[in-house]
Amino acid sequence: MTNRYETLDHYLSVCKLHKKEVSKLIRTVLENQTQIEPLAKSEKINLDNSLNLRGNNYFLEGIKLVDDDAFCLYHTLKINSWVVDLNLRFNKLSDDGAIWIAKLISENNTLKYLNLMCNDIGADGAEQISLSLQKNSSLVYLNLNGNKIGNKGGMCMAQMLQVNTTLQHLDIGETDLKIESLIALATILNYNRTLKSINVSRPVPQFQFANWMDEIAQHFANMLKVNKTLKQLVMKKFEMRDYGMHWICDKLLTNYHLLHLDLSCNRITRDGANDLAILLNRNNPLKILDLGYNRLEDEGAIILAEALAFANTNLQKLSIKSNNIGAKGLCALAEAMEQNSVLSNIYIWGNRFEEEKGCIAFKKLIDNSRLKQENTDVKPYVVDGKTYLSELTCDITMFYYWQPVHGDGVHNTLIEAF
Predict the structure, then answer these.
(1) Beta bridge partner(s), residue 142
(2) Integer angstrom CA distances of residue 416 from 47, 62, 169
(3) What is the reported pLDDT for 210?
(4) Could you tell me if 375 and 344 are in contact, meaning their C-beta atoms sit under 8 angstroms apart?
(5) Strand ranges for 265-365 from DSSP E
(6) How far apart are CA 131 and CA 373, in angstroms?
(7) 284: phi then psi, degrees, rounded to nearest 5
(8) Which of 116, 140, 218, 389 lies at 20 to 30 Å from 96 by C-alpha?
(9) Going by C-beta distance under 8 Å and a sequence separation of 6 or more, which residues neighbour residue 370?
(10) In 3-state terms, what secondary structure has residue 42?
C-alpha cells in the first residue's frame, strides 16, 4: 500500500473481514482529505504521507475513534509504507486501543510521527507503547500529552529511553507524573544521546516531601550540565521557586546546546530573574524563553531588560505574560528591544497596563516597525487621546492544542500540524 486509495480499500476489507463498523472519520479522511483540510491543496502543502485522524476536527464534529478503530488501524497500517505521520489526538483510545497502537509501532517500519495527545490511555497502555519503542527504529516523535499514564507510565518511558536510540521528541506533559518518574527521566537523560525535546509539565504535587519541586529541578539541572543533545526542555506548572531556578541557571552556564526553555506557570520571582540575568549576560545560546505566569514584577523585568539590552545577542523570543509587571518594567523592556536587534518576539499580555507609559512604549515599538504586529500579543489603540493595549491571540506555542479553520493562520498551522 503506497497511497491513500489503496489504504482505503485495505481498511474497508479489514472492517468487513473482522466484522467491525467502518469509522466515518477514517473513511472520510482517506476518501478526500482536501474536504477535511480545505486549504491543503490550494496552498500546495505536502500532506502525501500524513493521516490526520484528530478527534477535534471542526469539519467532522463529534466523531471520535474508539478501541475497535485502533484494532482496524493496526491491521490496515502494519504493512503500510504510505503513512509516515499518524495523528490520533483528541479521540477516545484507552489502554485496550493502546495495545494495538503498540503492536503497530513494533511492526511498522515507516511510521515516524505519532500523536496520541488527550486520549484515555493509562499506565498499562503506556507500558505497552514503551515496550514496543524498545524494538522500534523508525519513530522520532511521540506525543502522549494529556493521557493519565501516572508514575508507572513515566517509569516505563524512562526505561524505554535507556534502550531506544531513534526517538527525538517526547511529550509526556500533563500526564500525572510523580517525583520518582521525574528523577528517573532526568537520570536517564544524563546518558541518552538522541532525545532533542522533552515535555514533563504539570507533575502531581508531592506535598509530603519538603521542597519537592526544587529537588526535581536540581536533578534536571544536573542533567543539563552533561547533556549535549537536548534542544528543548518544557517544565511548566512545576511550582518551581527561585531556588530551583538558581540551580537550572547555574548549570546552563556550561550548556551550549539548549535552545528552548519553558518555565511558565511557576513561582519564579525577581530573585530567579537575577540568576537568569547572569545566564543571559554570558550570552548563552538560548533562543526561546517562556517565563509566562510567574511573579517577576517590575524589579525582575528591569533586571532582564538590562541583560538583554547590553549583553545578550542570541535570545529571539521572550514571553513574560501575566507577571504583574507595571509601567516601569514594561518601559525597561521596550528600551531593551530598541538596543537589542536580535530579540524579535515578545509577549506581555496579562501585566499591569493602568499607567499609560508602558502602553506608549510598546506602541512606539510597533509604529516604528521595531516590533512586528505578528510577533507580539498586544495591539495598541487610542481612545480620547489615551493609549491602550488590547490582546491578540498570539504566543510562543500558538497552535499546540488547537488550530484555526479560517483566516490567514490556516496555512502555517497546517504545516505545523503535519
Answers:
(1) 114, 170
(2) 11, 23, 15
(3) 64
(4) yes
(5) 288-290, 317-319, 345-347
(6) 46
(7) -60, 150
(8) 140
(9) 337, 338
(10) coil
Alpha helices in 227-326 (DSSP H): 242-252, 270-281, 297-310
C-alpha cell at 171: 511529550
Helix (H) or strand (E) holding 332: helix 327-339
Q: What is the DSSP letter of 180?
A: H
Of the listed ranges 137-141, 229-233, 408-412, the one predicted with least confidence: 408-412
Compute the distance between CA of residue 157 and CA of residue 125 in angstroms, rounded to an integer. Answer: 11
Task: Spell out the alpha helix ranges (H) of 18-165.
Answer: 24-31, 33-36, 67-77, 95-107, 123-133, 150-163
Q: Is the pTM higher than 0.85?
A: yes
Return the C-alpha cell found at 221. Answer: 539541572
pLDDT single digits (tens) 64-108 = 999 999 999 999 999 888 899 999 999 999 999 999 999 999 999
Q: Residue 193 contacts by C-beta under 8 Å, 6 or more apart in sequence? A: 165, 228, 229
Which H or E element spans position 4?
helix 4-17
Average pLDDT of the residues in 20-35: 81
Once rounded to an integer, what is the mean pLDDT over residues 352-366?
95
Q: What is the pLDDT of residues 132-153, one digit of tens each?
A: 999 999 999 999 999 999 999 9
DSSP state of 204: P
- Positive or negative CA dihedral for 27, 32, 33, 36? negative
Q: Among 336, 253, 267, which residue's Cα sits nearest to residue 301?
A: 336
Helix/strand/coil for 296: coil
Inter-CA distances, 375 with 229, 346, 393, Å: 28, 7, 11
Grid coordinates belonging to 250: 547555574
